[in-house]
Amino acid sequence: MTDAALADDAAPERSSRRALLGAGVIGAAMALARSGTAAASTSGLSDDDLAQVGFAISLELTARDLYDAAIAGGADDPLWGVMREQHEAYAQRLAGISGISADTRNDAVYDALEGAFTAGDPAGAAFDLENTAAATHVELLGAVSDPEPAAAIASIAAIESRHATVLAGLSGQGGDFDALFLNTATALSPEA
Predict the structure, then answer these.
(1) pLDDT at 132 exceeding the cut of 50
(2) Where are the domains of the chain?
(3) Which CATH number does 45-183 carry?
(4) Which of left, alpha, beta for 164 (phi over 0: left; psi -120 to 50: alpha)?
């Protein structure tokens, strides 16, 4: 089957990893082309951008803490530590750009997912988390107008999409085309 045929068969609520990466690149380019007109903070970001970046930071810290929970629950593959460190780095990168302290996770998301990360094999839960994080960051690209955080968010979304692909294999879904190439996750909303 060709890529065009697959695209025609794809459900409209699904996005491909290729489209995710394309959206990130396009979103970052659009953000670079825009000039912010909202009131700027001392970091140079508008209040709206600060709110969106703060939400992204809290999501990254939540992922970090969920990987910590997996490790504490007995997940001993070095992959879990790598994932933990990468999410910590993403939060720190966004904090450095925005001037927001990277010290607050999203407790509602953490509480909802902690059990799946500590009970048995966390690979399936981690696969879902990475897809949700990637989808969320793609949504944030449409809401952030400053080019610097937009470029960082775009690169984070692309890497989290790659995380999901690795975790598809680890969770036993490596032979499932949809798991490898489609992201059906629903983005989280800062308002939720």
Answers:
(1) yes
(2) 45-183
(3) 1.20.1260
(4) alpha
